[in-house]
C-alpha cells in the first residue's frame, strides 16, 4: 500500500524520561510524561492504544494488550535541548555543537550595533522571565522607548516592547536587524519578538510573538521533499523554526486546539507530501510555568482530537507523533529538560504492535519519511519504514 500523506505532529516538550547524559545538563531525574501521570488525571486512551505505555522503560501505567500502532522512543544526538535543535534533528540535521547561550547577557558590542541600526537603546540584557521582565523594565521602556533585551537558558535573543511604544511592524524590523547582527560566533537559534500591552504594572504579553530563526542547513527533510515536488505544509511555529525555507504552505496558530483543528481540516484536503505540526502550548503555557495540572489537561485535550484525526485517516495516510525535548513541569527549574522523546506511528499500512525500540537519533523520523517518498536527497538517521511495514 502506497503512503502519500504523512502527518507529523510534534508535542512540544513532551519528554519520555532522562537521557543518559541528562546530568550534564542539570536534568537528572527529569521525566515529563511521568510528572503528568503522577497527577492521576492523565487520560489519553488513544495514545495508549497506539502504544504509549508500551514504550521500553517509560514506566507509566499498564501496557496496552494489543497496541494498534508502532511505538518506541528516540535519543537526541545533537548537543542541546532547545526547540530549534530538536526540530532540526527531527528533520535530519544533527547539530554536533550547541548553539551559543548568554547566561551573563550579550556582549556590549552587539547591543551597541543594534542601537546604532535601530536608534533605540537596549534595556536589561540578562536572563529573565518573560513575564517578570516587562514588569521590571516596562516603565522605563515606556518612558525612554528603549528595547527590552533579555535571554533565557536557551539560545535566544528576545526583544520585548509595548505595542503603543514600538508598533508591531517596527518591533519585527528591530528583530530582523538583530537577526542580521547575530550570525557566526553569536548565531543564536532564535531572535524573538515579544510584544505586550497594558498599563504599568499590569502588562500582558500578546499573541503576536514572532521568531526569527537561523536558516537551516541543507539537505534536510523539507528541502528534500520540496526538491522532489512534494507538498510541505506546516502548522504552528514550524515555519519560524525553519526560517520559512522549503515550505509550500503555512498556518500560524495561537493554541493547540487551533493547531489540531487545522490538521483535521487538512485531513479532508487532497495533497501529496507532509503536514508538519508543532503544538507549543505544552511547553510555553505549562512546562515553563511548572503547571503540572494544566499540562495534563492539555494532553487530555490533544488525545481527544487525536482520536478524531485517526478516524479521518485513509489507507494512504501515516501519522507520526513525537516531541522535540522535555520540559518537566515538576522539576525545580523552568528550563527544558534533556529527555528521550516518545515515538508513535499509526496508519492502515503499519503493522500493529511493532516495538521500534530506542532509536539513536530523532533524525530517524526524517530518514523514514524520505524513504516513504523515495526522494533523491537523504539526511542523517535510519529509516524504520521496513520495520513498520514488515519488510524484515
Helix and strand arrangement:
Elements: E1 5-11, H1 32-37, H2 45-50, E2 70-74, H3 83-90, H4 108-118, E3 122-127, H5 130-144, E4 147-151, E5 156-162, H6 168-181, E6 190-199, E7 202-205, E8 210-213, H7 221-227, E9 231-235, H8 238-241, E10 249-251, H9 256-267, E11 273-279, H10 281-287, H11 292-312, E12 317-322, E13 341-346, E14 355-359, H12 364-372, H13 385-389
Parallel strand pairs: 1-11, 1-12, 2-14, 3-4, 5-6, 9-10, 9-11
Antiparallel strand pairs: 2-13, 4-5, 6-7, 6-8, 12-13
Helix pairs in contact: 4-6, 9-11, 10-11
Describe the structure.
- This protein has 392 residues and is an alpha/beta fold.
- The chain folds into 2 domains: 5-98 and 215-389, Alkaline Phosphatase, subunit A, CATH 3.40.720.10; 108-212, Phosphopentomutase (Alpha-Beta Plaits, 2-Layer Sandwich), CATH 3.30.70.
- Helices cover 32% and strands 20% of the residues.
- It is built from 13 helices and 14 strands.
- α4 (108-118) packs across α6 and α10 (281-287) runs antiparallel to α11.
- The two termini are 16 Å apart.
- The relative contact order is 0.23.
- The mean pLDDT is 96.
Largest sheet: 8 strands, mixed
CATH C-level class of the largest domain is Alpha Beta
**Mean of all residue-level pLDDT scores:** 96
Name the helicity range.
Answer: 25-40%
Features:
14 strands; alpha/beta; 2 domains; 8-stranded mixed beta sheet; Alpha-Beta Plaits; Alkaline Phosphatase, subunit A; 13 helices
Please summarize what this structure is.
With 392 residues, this protein is α/β, with parallel strands linked by helices. The chain has 13 helices and 14 strands. It folds into two domains: 269 residues, Alkaline Phosphatase, subunit A (3-Layer(aba) Sandwich), CATH 3.40.720.10; 105 residues, 2-Layer Sandwich (Alpha-Beta Plaits), CATH 3.30.70.
Amino acid at each position: 500500500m502506497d503512503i502519500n500523506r504523512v502527518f507529523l505532529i510534534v508535542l512540544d516538550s513532551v519528554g519520555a524520561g532522562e537521557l543518559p547524559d541528562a546530568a550534564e545538563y542539570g536534568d537528572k531525574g527529569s521525566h515529563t510524561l511521568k510528572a503528568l501521570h503522577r497527577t492521576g488525571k492523565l487520560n489519553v486512551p488513544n495514545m495508549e492504544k497506539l502504544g504509549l505505555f508500551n514504550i521500553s522503560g517509560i514506566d507509566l501505567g499498564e501496557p496496552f494488550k494489543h497496541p494498534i500502532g508502532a511505538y518506541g522512543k528516540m535519543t537526541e544526538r545533537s548537543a542541546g535541548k532547545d526547540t530549534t535543535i530538536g526540530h532540526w534533528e527531527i528533520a535530519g540535521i544533527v547539530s554536533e555543537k550547541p548553539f551559543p547561550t548568554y547566561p551573563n547577557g550579550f556582549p556590549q558590542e552587539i547591543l551597541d550595533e543594534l542601537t546604532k541600526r535601530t536608534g533605540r537603546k537596549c534595556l536589561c540584557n540578562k536572563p529573565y522571565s518573560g513575564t517578570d521582565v516587562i514588569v521590571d523594565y516596562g516603565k522605563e521602556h515606556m518612558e525612554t522607548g528603549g528595547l527590552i533585551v533579555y535571554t533565557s537558558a536557551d539560545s535566544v535573543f528576545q526583544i520585548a516592547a509595548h505595542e503603543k511604544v514600538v508598533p508591531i511592524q517596527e518591533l519585527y524590523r528591530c528583530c530582523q536587524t538583530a537577526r542580521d547582527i547575530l550570525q557566526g560566533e553569536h548565531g543564536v537559534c532564535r531572535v524573538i519578538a515579544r510584544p505586550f500591552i497594558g498599563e504599568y504594572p499590569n502588562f500582558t504579553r500578546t499573541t503576536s510573538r514572532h521568531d526569527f530563526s537561523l536558516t537551516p542547513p541543507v539537505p534536510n527533510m523539507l528541502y528534500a521533499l520540496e526538491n522532489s515536488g512534494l507538498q510541505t505544509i506546516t502548522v504552528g511555529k514550524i515555519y519560524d523554526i525553519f526560517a520559512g525555507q522549503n515550505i509550500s504552505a503555512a498556518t500560524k496558530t495561537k493554541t493547540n486546539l487551533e493547531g489540531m483543528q487545522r490538521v483535521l481540516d487538512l485531513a479532508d484536503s487532497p495533497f501529496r507530501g507532509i503536514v508538519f505540526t508543532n503544538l507549543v502550548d505544552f511547553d510555553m503555557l505549562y512546562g515553563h510555568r511548572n503547571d503540572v495540572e494544566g499540562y495534563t489537561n492539555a494532553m487530555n485535550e490533544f488525545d481527544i482530537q487525536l482520536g478524531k484525526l485517526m478516524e479521518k485517516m485513509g489507507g494512504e495516510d501515516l501519522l507520526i507523533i513525537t516531541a522535540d525535548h522535555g520540559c518537566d513541569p515538576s522539576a525545580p527549574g523552568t528550563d527544558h529538560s534533556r529527555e528521550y522523546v516518545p515515538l508513535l506511528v499509526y496508519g492502515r499500512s503499519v503493522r500493529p504492535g511493532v516495538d521500534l525500540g530506542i532509536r539513536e537519533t530523532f533524525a530517524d523520523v526524517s530518514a523514514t519519511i524520505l524513504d516513504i517518498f523515495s526522494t533523491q536527497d537523504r539526511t542523517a538517521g535510519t529509516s524504520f519504514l521496513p520495520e513498520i511495514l514488515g519488510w524484515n
